[in-house]
Amino acid sequence: MWLLVLMLAAPVLGQQVLRLAVGLFDQYLAGNHTPDDGRSHEAYQAAQTTANYLAWFIASSTALVSTGATALVARFVGAGNSASANRVVDQSMFLAVVFGVALTAICTLVLPGTVNLLGMKPDAAGIAIDFLLPICLLLTFQVIESAGIACLVGAGDTRTGLWVLGIVTLSNMPLALLFYYLLGFTGIAVGTALSHVIGTVLVLRILARGRAGLKLTKGCLRPDRPMLVRLLRVSIPASIDTLSIGICQLWFLGLINELGNVATAAHGIALRWEALGYLSGQAFATAAAAMVGQNLGAGDPERAARSGWLSFALGGSIMTFMGAVFFLLARPMFELFCPAPEQQPIVEMGVPVLRLVAFAMPFLSSIIILTGALRGAGDTSLPMLITWVGFLGIRIPLAYILIFDEFGLVPKGYLPEGAAGLFGAWLAMFADILVRGACFLLRFGTGGWKRISV
Question: Domain limits of the chain?
């Protein structure tokens, strides 16, 4: 079974590395961008931090389609019902088009107001709005791309997604560089948005030809009400969960933005590197979702449980190793994106928080991987409640207290002047991760998810 988990996870890990490569490349362009409009390095890097948060929030909306697609395809494939699996593919594409168009319109309209609500400094806020607009305008393509890959994952095909996202990455880098030279900082986002258009075309072409027993039919844009209801019954709680995380993350970012551009820039770079651990866990979460769903569909809940635990053990080990890398190499990792002498305050503020999150990696692996396993089983309601407890009961209240270090929890002399606020925010995040990690372990261990019907 461990070999099967690795075979499913390895291509997804490749996908995540490619996604990260795009993000790191964009971050590198931003960090080495020489401002020619009188604004500072910190303003551009703070703008990119907020833009990355909002771009992640926008991309998370794809859970409204992709979670149900993976869970239902996996169940039908496990049960040997290929006709129903293909109906899921058709209806997933239908939902992707409908929600994609609606989300494009909504995100484009609310973008300026949302950025201004996050408490950014005026110089950085304008940059962030300009950066995000191309991503919002082409969001429909990203939703369709994610839905198609999610269907293939449910069928046990994780290699096609790797191939597609490989093309997306190879397209993104030259496009981002080209438009960066043509349009400046905003051109980075134009290149990223256009690369997802290419990915969408590839996914639709693959599904139209047929892959892993799945095939998109000509009637895919005709609604099938019973199947849509089943898809949404799984996807809506997962989407609320994901969007709740996004809203709380934006709230958390708003608190950090109050600390100024240097803190926001350091926060963003630390998160970008933390993604090395997060995305590796996501690969094993995808493997867990596919295996848990297929084994439940085949009527073998005990094998489903073993596949979930094994995914957690393998993925958690990799994430723990990445934590050690963060702790040991935090300074050179920051200096890669902050090469100029005037960017040194960002480095000094960011290194301690990256070292702090290194110790949270085992608990973060529980959240990420076991969430995937539970979603594969169709268990999406309780994880949503755990998210609310973690963010609204722990992270946000603690952040208000610790950002200003009212109780002197940060040792004197440990951080440079002005850095205690950001470190306090990450202490609050650390506490949230510990509690939610324990809750997901408890939920998966009790096995109530084995009895959920989708």
Answer: 2-451
Largest CA distance in the chain: 67
Residue 388 to residues 166, 394, 452, Cα–Cα distance (Å): 35, 9, 21
Q: Report the alpha-carbon distance of residue 432 to residue 426 in Å, rounded.
A: 10
Contacts of 118 (CB under 8 A, 6+ apart): 50, 125, 250, 253, 254, 257
Q: What's the first-to-final CA gap in the chain, in angstroms?
A: 25
What does the angle CA 163 – CA 95 – CA 153 come to, to the nearest 5 degrees? 30
CA distance 276 to 13: 10
What is the spatial distance between Cα 53 and Cα 200, in angstroms, rounded to a whole number?
23
Least Cα distance to 286 among 21, 13, 80 occurs for 13
pLDDT per residue, tens digit, the chain (454 aa), is 888 888 888 887 877 777 777 777 776 776 665 655 555 556 776 777 777 777 777 777 777 788 888 888 888 888 888 888 899 899 999 989 998 899 889 888 888 887 777 776 677 778 788 888 888 888 899 889 989 998 998 888 888 887 888 888 888 888 888 888 888 778 888 988 899 999 999 999 999 999 888 988 877 678 888 888 888 888 888 778 777 887 888 888 888 888 887 888 888 889 888 887 887 888 898 888 888 888 888 888 899 999 999 999 999 999 999 999 999 999 998 988 787 777 788 888 889 999 999 999 999 999 999 998 998 888 878 888 898 899 999 999 888 888 865 555 555 555 544 456 888 889 899 999 999 999 999 999 988 888 877 6
Taking the C-alpha atoms of residue 145 and residue 165, their distance in angstroms, rounded to an integer, is 10
Query: Rounded to whole angstroms, how far apart are CA atoms 244 and 61?
Result: 11
Q: If DSSP states are collapsed to H, E and C, what string results for 330-398?
A: HHHHHHHHCCCHHHHHHHHHHHHHHHHHHCCHHHHHHHHHHHHHHHHCCCCHHHHHHHHHHHHHHHHHH
With CA atoms as reference, report the closest residue to 290 among 278, 279, 303.
303
Nearest-CA neighbor of 185 among 123, 242, 139, 143?
123
β-bridge mates for residue 389, sequence order: none
Give the number of other CB atoms < 10 A from CB of residue 157: 22
Question: Which positions ≥6 away from 332 have C-beta within 8 Å?
Answer: none
